Every structure is written in structure tokens, then in C-alpha cells.
Amino acid sequence: EQQEEDTLRELRLFLRCVTDRLILDRRFKAFSKPVDKEQVPDYLTVVRHPMDLSTVLSKIDRQKYITVREYLHDVDQIWENALEYNPEDDPYDRQIRHRACALKDTVHAIIKDELKEDFERSCEQIKETR
Ligand SMILES: CC(=O)c1csc(NC(=O)C2C[NH2+]C2)n1
């Protein structure tokens, strides 16, 4: 009903606000757009579930997230993919892993600080009834 739509609208606004801040952060530039398979041809053979911040924004707008938990699953996928594709002990791989860890810790810290527990609880309730 209308209260549910109001809640999901507020969720979308919150998730866009968080994602915009991540996209503005220069540390996370490598995670802001899908990896270009022309430039990195073996990427999709290694990474089974590609994800990036522009795709997350698009999923927000297409109303794919009913809960913050689902949103965090996708942002954590970005971190997981970066560790998987960049395992080497060379400076580039180490730097991109460091940035991926910063992305994951940053988004979880923002959510802990800015998301009210009962707001997420009401989103989970809506998810259960659908
Ligand atoms: C988004 C992401 O994780 C990414 C884009 S390019 C890349 N890694 C490389 O180009 C090579 C350096 N060792 C592999 N990782």
C-alpha cells in the first residue's frame, strides 16, 4: 500500500545518496564502471558475477533493491571480484585490493552510521510479503 511505496522511495533516495558519495571518491574510480572486456579480455572468464557502482545506481532506479541487505550484497560483490581478479603481490594488484577493501569498509561504516535499524526492518518486512 502507500506506506510501503513511501518506505521503498525513501530507501532508493538513501541508497542513491550513499552510492553517489562512493562514485565521487577518487579511490573507487576503478569500480565506478563495468570492466571493458576489450581492454581486459580475460576478466569475464575469471569474474563470474561482474558488478560496478554505475550498475548499482541503475539497479536502484529499476527498483531492484527492496532492502539495504540486497544493496550491500552487490557492493560486496565489487570487493570480492577485485580480490579475485587481482591476487598478485605486485604494486598494481595490491593497490586495487587496498581500494576494494576501503570501498567495502566505507559502505558498511556509512550504513552502520546512517541507517536506522527499524527502517531496514520495515524494508525486510515488505520483502517477506512480496
Ligand atoms: C575492476 C578491477 O578489479 C580491475 C580492473 S583492471 C584490474 N586488474 C588488472 O588490470 C591487472 C593488474 N593485475 C590484473 N582489475
How much is the radius of gyration in Å? 16 Å
User: How much of the polypeptide forms β-strand, as a percent range?
Assistant: under 5%
Bound molecules: the ligand CC(=O)c1csc(NC(=O)C2C[NH2+]C2)n1
Order of helices and strands: HHHHHH
Beta strands, count = 0
Q: Please give the count of helices.
A: 6
Overall structural class, as computed from helix and strand content, comes to mainly alpha
Q: Outline the biggest β-sheet.
A: none
- Return residue spans where pLDDT drops below 50 for at least 5 consecutive residues: none
Helix proportion range: 55-70%
Shape: elongated
Whole-number mean pLDDT: 98
Distance between the termini: 12 Å
Topology:
Elements: H1 2-24, H2 43-46, H3 53-61, H4 68-85, H5 91-114, H6 117-128
Helix pairs in contact: 1-3, 1-6, 4-5
The protein binds the ligand CC(=O)c1csc(NC(=O)C2C[NH2+]C2)n1.
Describe the structure.
The chain is 69% helix and 0% strand. It is mainly alpha-helical. Helix 1 (2-24) packs antiparallel against helix 3, helix 1 (2-24) packs across helix 6 and helix 4 packs antiparallel against helix 5. The longest helix is centred in the last third of the chain and has 24 residues, at 91-114. The ligand CC(=O)c1csc(NC(=O)C2C[NH2+]C2)n1 binds at residues 30-31, 35, 40, 82, 85-86, 88, 92-93, 96.
Short descriptors:
mainly alpha, 130 residues
Concise summary:
The protein is mainly α. It has helices at 2-24, 43-46, 53-61, 68-85, 91-114, 117-128.
